[in-house]
Amino acid sequence: MKKLSLVLALLLLQLSLWAQKDERPALIATVDSFFLHLHSGDSAKMRPLLAPQMELLTVAGDKVQRSPLPAFLMAIARQPRLQEWEEKLWDYRLQIDGPLASVWTPYSFYLDGNLSHCGANHFTLRQKADGQWQIISLVDSRRQEGCLNRSWAQESQAKIDTLMDQWHLAAKAADADGFFGKMTKKGIYIGTDAGERWYRDELRKWAKGAFKKAPAWDFSVKERHIRIDEQGGKTAWADELLDTWMGPCRATAVLSYQNGDWKIEHYQLSMTVPNEKVKAYLKWLEQK
């Protein structure tokens, strides 16, 4: 009975540790290490990352190909030294349930700097007793159509960065055409008030007075992140930290590529509240 109680106590302790620790950085680091050793051709350093019975499957069209683990490691070790392999990962999508996790990574594969193919990797991992993550299966898809090219992604990120800067500058200069012209006709702007949800032309009508004199409003960008859709590269997401007259604000944007230009489809602006001020803020709201 005492042994059973001890086992249950240890199991509950392990479950508690899984619940408390954020394992996402460790999972991403494991996947990144996999590709680091793949690119360098180091099968010896690759081996500890892989479970002994790891499964490797490739889906291409309507065919599924299974690769034995020893053959996979041998292919890495025998990678031609004059060839350069690079698998560019566009995103990491993680799901975790205790000692079990999955990581989904859309990718583009380059051989000697040239785009070869693209697809997605699906890693399944398990956490060992020592806390390290180990890959127990890898399924990848491969295609040559609809690939996101690195140069297109980099070029698009630069264009979107410039577009967003110009958009904020247009508001500062009270340039209504410059501001609203960067939104799609059905673009949506969500402001900080609970009732502020406008289509582009509704916002233009509401803000007509503000755009009569500069600045209509003045937001300075302190930080911005942009991600391009890996399935075709015609949609993008951005988030930014802004310095405004309301204090620090966070904003998110959705953009689409139309007729040779990026346009803002959706923009949401939110005021930030420091965590230590939330209770006081809620109390203030109750007094309104």
Automatic annotation (TrEMBL):
<keyword id="KW-0732">Signal</keyword>
<protein>
    <recommendedName>
        <fullName>SnoaL-like domain-containing protein</fullName>
    </recommendedName>
</protein>
<dbReference type="InterPro" id="IPR032710">
    <property type="entry name" value="NTF2-like_dom_sf"/>
</dbReference>
<dbReference type="InterPro" id="IPR037401">
    <property type="entry name" value="SnoaL-like"/>
</dbReference>
<feature type="signal peptide">
    <location>
        <begin position="1"/>
        <end position="19"/>
    </location>
</feature>
<dbReference type="Pfam" id="PF13474">
    <property type="entry name" value="SnoaL_3"/>
</dbReference>
<feature type="domain" description="SnoaL-like">
    <location>
        <begin position="160"/>
        <end position="274"/>
    </location>
</feature>
